[in-house]
Design goal:
6-phosphofructo-2-kinase domain-containing protein, binds glyceraldehyde-3-phosphate, globular, alpha/beta, 17% strand
Length: 196
Protein backbone atom coordinates (compact mmCIF):
# COMPACT_ATOMS: atom_id res chain seq x y z
CA UNK A 1 0.00 0.00 0.00
CA UNK A 2 1.14 3.50 -0.75
CA UNK A 3 1.90 5.61 2.28
CA UNK A 4 2.21 9.28 3.08
CA UNK A 5 4.85 10.32 5.58
CA UNK A 6 4.99 13.75 7.15
CA UNK A 7 7.96 15.26 8.95
CA UNK A 8 8.86 18.69 10.16
CA UNK A 9 12.40 19.85 9.40
CA UNK A 10 15.02 19.07 12.02
CA UNK A 11 15.55 21.66 14.74
CA UNK A 12 16.81 24.89 13.18
CA UNK A 13 19.02 27.63 14.61
CA UNK A 14 15.89 29.80 14.85
CA UNK A 15 13.99 27.04 16.73
CA UNK A 16 16.86 26.91 19.20
CA UNK A 17 16.50 30.63 19.90
CA UNK A 18 12.69 30.54 19.95
CA UNK A 19 12.45 32.76 16.86
CA UNK A 20 9.64 32.26 14.34
CA UNK A 21 9.98 32.25 10.56
CA UNK A 22 13.28 33.15 8.90
CA UNK A 23 15.38 30.87 6.77
CA UNK A 24 18.03 29.46 9.09
CA UNK A 25 20.02 26.24 8.79
CA UNK A 26 19.70 23.19 11.03
CA UNK A 27 21.19 23.16 14.53
CA UNK A 28 23.44 20.27 15.52
CA UNK A 29 20.42 18.45 16.91
CA UNK A 30 18.52 19.09 13.69
CA UNK A 31 21.47 17.79 11.71
CA UNK A 32 21.36 14.58 13.76
CA UNK A 33 17.70 14.19 12.81
CA UNK A 34 18.55 14.58 9.13
CA UNK A 35 21.01 11.70 9.49
CA UNK A 36 18.53 9.50 11.40
CA UNK A 37 15.64 10.05 8.98
CA UNK A 38 16.81 7.86 6.04
CA UNK A 39 17.24 4.75 8.22
CA UNK A 40 13.88 5.27 9.93
CA UNK A 41 12.08 5.74 6.61
CA UNK A 42 13.79 2.83 4.84
CA UNK A 43 12.88 0.56 7.78
CA UNK A 44 9.20 1.37 7.06
CA UNK A 45 9.43 0.36 3.36
CA UNK A 46 8.49 -3.11 2.09
CA UNK A 47 11.72 -5.13 2.13
CA UNK A 48 10.81 -7.58 -0.70
CA UNK A 49 11.56 -5.31 -3.64
CA UNK A 50 13.24 -1.92 -4.07
CA UNK A 51 10.75 0.97 -3.79
CA UNK A 52 11.19 4.63 -4.40
CA UNK A 53 9.71 7.40 -2.31
CA UNK A 54 9.02 10.87 -3.65
CA UNK A 55 10.47 13.42 -1.22
CA UNK A 56 8.78 16.80 -1.22
CA UNK A 57 10.28 19.73 0.67
CA UNK A 58 9.59 23.43 0.92
CA UNK A 59 12.01 25.94 -0.62
CA UNK A 60 13.49 26.83 2.78
CA UNK A 61 16.95 25.71 3.87
CA UNK A 62 15.83 23.81 6.93
CA UNK A 63 13.63 21.34 5.01
CA UNK A 64 16.13 20.94 2.15
CA UNK A 65 18.88 20.19 4.69
CA UNK A 66 16.63 17.74 6.54
CA UNK A 67 15.99 15.77 3.33
CA UNK A 68 19.63 15.91 2.24
CA UNK A 69 20.60 12.31 3.05
CA UNK A 70 17.47 10.63 1.73
CA UNK A 71 18.44 8.53 -1.31
CA UNK A 72 15.31 9.46 -3.30
CA UNK A 73 14.26 12.05 -5.89
CA UNK A 74 13.32 15.42 -4.36
CA UNK A 75 10.90 18.13 -5.32
CA UNK A 76 10.74 21.65 -3.84
CA UNK A 77 7.35 23.30 -3.34
CA UNK A 78 6.97 26.99 -2.55
CA UNK A 79 3.44 26.07 -1.44
CA UNK A 80 5.03 24.10 1.44
CA UNK A 81 6.92 27.10 2.86
CA UNK A 82 6.05 27.99 6.47
CA UNK A 83 3.23 30.40 7.36
CA UNK A 84 4.42 33.94 6.62
CA UNK A 85 4.55 35.77 9.95
CA UNK A 86 4.82 39.16 8.18
CA UNK A 87 6.01 41.93 10.49
CA UNK A 88 6.58 39.34 13.25
CA UNK A 89 9.03 37.25 11.24
CA UNK A 90 12.25 36.70 13.18
CA UNK A 91 10.75 37.55 16.59
CA UNK A 92 10.08 35.42 19.69
CA UNK A 93 6.47 35.08 20.92
CA UNK A 94 7.49 37.16 23.97
CA UNK A 95 8.79 39.95 21.72
CA UNK A 96 5.53 39.88 19.74
CA UNK A 97 3.49 40.11 22.97
CA UNK A 98 5.58 43.08 24.09
CA UNK A 99 5.83 44.98 20.84
CA UNK A 100 2.44 44.18 19.29
CA UNK A 101 0.16 43.28 22.24
CA UNK A 102 -3.07 43.69 20.23
CA UNK A 103 -1.77 41.39 17.53
CA UNK A 104 -0.72 38.84 20.11
CA UNK A 105 -4.17 38.88 21.75
CA UNK A 106 -6.01 38.79 18.42
CA UNK A 107 -4.07 35.71 17.39
CA UNK A 108 -4.71 33.99 20.72
CA UNK A 109 -8.46 34.64 20.32
CA UNK A 110 -8.77 33.38 16.75
CA UNK A 111 -5.63 31.61 15.66
CA UNK A 112 -7.37 30.11 12.61
CA UNK A 113 -8.47 33.39 11.04
CA UNK A 114 -5.82 35.76 12.45
CA UNK A 115 -3.60 37.09 9.67
CA UNK A 116 -0.16 38.52 10.56
CA UNK A 117 0.15 42.07 9.17
CA UNK A 118 1.89 41.69 5.78
CA UNK A 119 1.73 37.92 6.31
CA UNK A 120 -0.67 34.97 6.38
CA UNK A 121 -3.34 33.30 8.47
CA UNK A 122 -3.93 29.58 8.93
CA UNK A 123 -6.88 30.00 6.54
CA UNK A 124 -4.43 31.35 3.96
CA UNK A 125 -2.10 28.39 4.53
CA UNK A 126 -4.94 25.86 4.24
CA UNK A 127 -5.76 27.37 0.84
CA UNK A 128 -2.14 27.60 -0.22
CA UNK A 129 -1.44 23.88 0.35
CA UNK A 130 -4.44 22.78 -1.75
CA UNK A 131 -2.37 22.19 -4.94
CA UNK A 132 0.03 20.01 -2.92
CA UNK A 133 -2.87 17.96 -1.58
CA UNK A 134 -4.29 17.50 -5.08
CA UNK A 135 -0.90 16.18 -6.25
CA UNK A 136 -0.59 13.99 -3.14
CA UNK A 137 -3.96 12.43 -3.97
CA UNK A 138 -2.92 11.91 -7.60
CA UNK A 139 0.56 10.49 -6.87
CA UNK A 140 0.83 6.69 -7.03
CA UNK A 141 4.18 6.39 -5.26
CA UNK A 142 4.66 6.84 -1.55
CA UNK A 143 5.55 10.41 -0.61
CA UNK A 144 7.48 11.91 2.28
CA UNK A 145 6.57 15.54 2.87
CA UNK A 146 9.28 17.43 4.78
CA UNK A 147 7.84 20.79 5.74
CA UNK A 148 6.89 23.05 8.64
CA UNK A 149 4.61 23.07 11.66
CA UNK A 150 1.73 25.24 10.38
CA UNK A 151 1.82 23.82 6.84
CA UNK A 152 1.92 20.21 8.07
CA UNK A 153 -1.01 20.88 10.40
CA UNK A 154 -3.00 21.85 7.30
CA UNK A 155 -1.89 18.79 5.27
CA UNK A 156 -2.47 16.41 8.19
CA UNK A 157 -5.90 17.89 8.88
CA UNK A 158 -7.01 17.22 5.32
CA UNK A 159 -6.14 13.51 5.48
CA UNK A 160 -7.32 13.00 9.07
CA UNK A 161 -10.53 15.03 8.74
CA UNK A 162 -9.65 17.50 11.48
CA UNK A 163 -12.18 20.35 11.77
CA UNK A 164 -10.68 23.73 10.77
CA UNK A 165 -11.01 25.22 14.28
CA UNK A 166 -8.68 22.52 15.67
CA UNK A 167 -5.98 22.85 12.99
CA UNK A 168 -3.86 25.66 14.53
CA UNK A 169 -3.28 23.69 17.74
CA UNK A 170 -2.66 20.20 16.37
CA UNK A 171 0.36 18.50 17.87
CA UNK A 172 3.15 18.44 15.29
CA UNK A 173 6.37 17.80 17.20
CA UNK A 174 9.91 18.09 15.85
CA UNK A 175 11.95 14.94 15.14
CA UNK A 176 8.92 12.71 14.60
CA UNK A 177 8.06 10.74 11.48
CA UNK A 178 4.28 10.53 10.96
CA UNK A 179 3.06 7.65 8.81
CA UNK A 180 -0.39 7.77 7.21
CA UNK A 181 -1.74 4.56 5.65
CA UNK A 182 -4.94 4.52 3.57
CA UNK A 183 -7.56 2.13 4.95
CA UNK A 184 -10.11 0.23 2.84
CA UNK A 185 -12.90 2.46 4.19
CA UNK A 186 -11.21 5.57 2.80
CA UNK A 187 -9.88 6.85 6.12
CA UNK A 188 -6.19 6.98 7.08
CA UNK A 189 -4.55 5.17 9.95
CA UNK A 190 -1.70 6.95 11.70
CA UNK A 191 1.52 5.92 13.38
CA UNK A 192 4.11 8.25 14.90
CA UNK A 193 7.81 7.46 15.23
CA UNK A 194 9.77 9.83 17.48
CA UNK A 195 13.43 9.70 16.42
CA UNK A 196 15.05 11.57 19.29
O1 LIG B 1 6.83 29.90 12.83
C1 LIG B 1 5.74 29.37 12.79
C2 LIG B 1 5.38 28.21 13.58
O2 LIG B 1 5.94 27.01 13.13
C3 LIG B 1 3.90 28.12 13.57
O3 LIG B 1 3.54 27.92 14.88
O4 LIG B 1 1.27 28.79 14.33
O5 LIG B 1 1.75 27.65 16.52
O6 LIG B 1 2.65 29.95 16.05
P1 LIG B 1 2.23 28.63 15.48
Amino acid sequence: VRKIWLSRHGESEYNQKGLIGGNSSLSERGERYSRALPGALIARLPQEQPVSVAVWTSTLKRTIETARFLPFPKLRWKALDEIDAGICDGMTYEQIAERYPQEYEARKKDKLRYRYPSGESYMDVIQRVEPVIIELERERESVLVVAHQAVLRAVYAYFMNVPPEDIPRLSMPLHTLIELTPMPDGTMSEQRFPLD
